[in-house]
Write a structure and sequence with these properties.
By secondary structure, the chain is of the alpha/beta class. It has eleven helices and eleven strands. It has a single domain, classed as Ribokinase (UDP-N-acetylmuramoyl-L-alanine:D-glutamate ligase). Strand 3, helix 4 and strand 4 form a beta-alpha-beta unit.
């Protein structure tokens, strides 16, 4: 399988997403709901925030992709997540898993492990979460924030998680890594201001889900990280601090063009 490593291919994926306007079903945390919905709309997708166990299976059936994010866990939500994932798999619809804070508590780590083996198309987490999923223990996370760098250890952890789960793993940080088995793509983009604005990582997982509606999982992850990183770089230059970053990010996504992608994103092996 060829690695999507050209700006033209990423731009083509974004154009197709904008034309299709996929409906993305999100079971996400309270902090991320509004930001995720606004970003998906600006990107060109259609968001839905649906987490009741009584309706998630029905909503998966009318959606193009599913994003499951465990940021604000509770047993009823875990039940809904399992039902939604199973329904997506039964219908052949892609779903993305964001293991927020994996490693922070035993309960959160256990839920992450249980969901990760339900065949997500993509697992998207920060360096600490991915290293925790690979067995690094709790030291890689602080609450739901990463304290691990997106370095060679993170790439190796992503490979281990991909091999165990069969999913494409997108480990994000100063350098993003997209791994499927032993195939590895690094992406340099974004801005250091982005981790200082809450929910932007969670929102990225929703963006990955949107791209899975128009591209295979690895290509979707690479395209999503490239587009989001380019928008983040543009947005940060328009901000004096992190407070207005989500709004600027939405504007940058809405206005994203081929030249901006070419300028703001670097693909490395």
């Amino acid at each position: 399988m060829a690695i999507l490593n050209t700006h033209d291919a990423v731009w083509s994926a974004l154009e197709e997403l904008r034309a299709k306007r996929p409906l993305v079903h999100n079971i996400t945390n309270y902090v991320a709901m509004t930001v995720s919905a606004n970003v998906l709309l600006a990107l060109g997708a259609s968001p839905a925030m649906v987490h009741a166990a009584e309706e998630v299976e029905d909503f998966v059936a009318i959606s193009d992709a599913l994003c499951i994010n465990i940021g604000t866990l509770s047993p009823p939500w875990v039940e809904a997540m399992g039902k939604a994932a199973a329904r997506a798999n039964a219908l052949g619809k892609p779903w993305v898993f964001d293991p927020v804070g994996c490693g922070a508590t035993p309960y959160r780590t256990r839920v992450s492990d249980e969901l990760a083996v339900l065949r997500p198309a993509v697992i998207r987490g920060n360096a600490g979460e991915v290293q925790s999923m690979a067995g690094a223990g709790a030291g890689a996370t602080k609450g739901v924030d990463s304290v691990a760098g997106a370095d060679a250890a993170t790439a190796a952890a992503a490979e281990a998680v991909s091999r165990r789960t069969g999913a494409v793993v997108a480990a994000t940080g100063a350098i993003d890594h997209v791994v499927e088995g032993t195939a590895h793509q690094a992406i340099e983009s974004g801005d250091a201001l982005m981790p200082l604005s809450t929910a932007l990582g969670c929102t990225l997982s929703a963006v990955v889900a949107a791209f899975t509606a128009v591209r295979p999982p690895r290509q979707a992850a690479i395209a999503a990280l490239a587009v989001y990183g380019a928008a983040g770089a543009v947005a940060a230059r328009n901000c004096r601090g992190p407070g207005h970053l989500p709004a600027e990010l939405c504007d940058a996504l809405y206005l994203m063009d081929r030249d901006t992608l070419q300028r703001e994103v670097r693909f490395t092996a």
